[in-house]
Predict the structure.
Amino acid sequence: VQLQASGGGLVQPGGSLRLACAASGLNLRSYTVAWFRQAPGKEREVISCIMRTSTTTSYADSVKARFTISRDGAKNTVSLQMNNLKSEDTAVYYCAATRRTYLPRSISGFDVWGQGTLVTVSS
């Protein structure tokens, strides 16, 4: 059972990236999936999630209207489309999944974590 996060890289401010969280050994349609990020010297923060029982999504204020989370059942992936990237979006991005039907308050509430993918926004 594992998650594989991919799609990170170096992009200029205003650019776009699409991150993917691919699952093996579990069906992501049965999980609430969240994207987190952790910038150097800062705590890991949740930035977006898509709920298990529906297509309901939520976003942190810092990424709202710029990032879009989506689920592809056929590919068993959850993606994060990131547009209009800013330097403050620079971080390691992680995906995580939980069987809960809500977003856990603590990162310990997640059952499976991906390994992280680095996003660097710089000119």
